[in-house]
Amino acid sequence: MLSEFFIFGLVMTSAITGGECEVTEVFAQEGSEAFLSCKCDPSSPNPASVIWTKHDKGTVWRKTQSGLQFWGTSWLHKKTPRVQCPHYRFERRDYSLQINSVKLEDAGLFSCRVGTADGVIKHQVMLRIIQVSISPSAPIWDSTFSISCDVTPPAEGATVQWTLNNISSIEAIKTLQVAPTKSLVSGRASARLEGNWTCVVGYKGEVGRASVTLAMKGIIQPPKDDTKVYAALGSAATLPCVFSPGLIPSSSGWEKLESGFPFKAATSPLPASFSQPTPSSQPSVDKSAILTEVRSEDEGTYRCSGTVEGRQLTRNLHLVVAKVVNLANKAGSVTMSCHLSDTSEVTRYEWVHQDFDQSGNLTVVSIHKGKDLTVAKKGDDKGEWTCRFYGKQGILGNVTHHMAVMSSLGGQNSGVSHKAAAAGVLSILLIVLLLVLVQMCRNHRRRKRILQYPTLETIVHRISNEREEREKNREKK
Fold it and tell me: Which residues does UniProt assign to the signal peptide (predicted)?
């Protein structure tokens, strides 16, 4: 220890050649990596020693002429140094100091002294630590919150600006300039304020940044209001309503909103197949509901709500019903259309024809683009026809019909096909009944035609009687 202070004293008292550089400003976020510059003229002779010191902690790191390196005890973490000078830079006379996992107490003035045969070259670096914190750390929707930005040590005259997701303009947020080196933003938690908040500090031509992610507690699924859920007619559908982990609502429920009335008072009865989660002894964050069989009239806006810490949280979502309808049904072909109750997010449609191969596996036969599709009623076009609809982010949903069912349709949906089948059966029964009546009429007319000749029957009967009388008289004789 005495030898270390002796060397440090020699360096401090040596003649300084080349002059002293101005203090260099360096900003670093707490927990990140800081890089303190210390560069000499590449033509300068090899140094006899290099030493980094901090004004309130003594030696940080030093290198002797023999090449041995030493670290200050306060810069060791579990015997592993938090500071280092990369050796590959020594040949370029670069003795910059790298500090890993920067702490708040690391902030302050650092000095780099390079001792050569010609004297001592000195560099000074001011390390300022930027801290960004959120209070509370995870606010609940619609509750108040604040984000603060602190710089240590303070920098008089520094400017502080905020960005949200790399966008400078932040609407509906009140910015308060508390001190030259400290800024505070506050407001009410909402979905548009979630994301990456960055505090940008400018001082003496240098810029430092520190970021923090604001994630709010509330209903995380669906992630925003008016999220659309797509379901095929007759299929099952799940209406998601999931709260943040650990955020168990004291009460929850579902309601269907009247069309055109986005207020709670204007509600309509829930669908017959609507199933809400039942209360259980195990509290759950998942309050999703299920429709076991979607009907056309089930489309519309649904609202999930729950009470957390005395605050009611709600989320609206829109159920979109998809179905295949027939636009035309000719003798040799049928034209199908992919119909959705809401097409505001749909950018394109495609039809996928699937059928079973020789091994019995369902395979894709062909793909066609467009909302409407005309196919022939021949064997090659039978099988499953699936309409897929896409949005900007990818596939939104699909609806599937079988060609064998669709080819017998006479209307625009399956209800019309059942009516057509019933009418066909009734027509057949009427035809059979008519044939029976015609046959009965023919039989009746045939009998009447025979009875038109009663005299002939009488003559035959009389001749027969006379023949019997003659035979009897012969027997008596």
Answer: 1-21
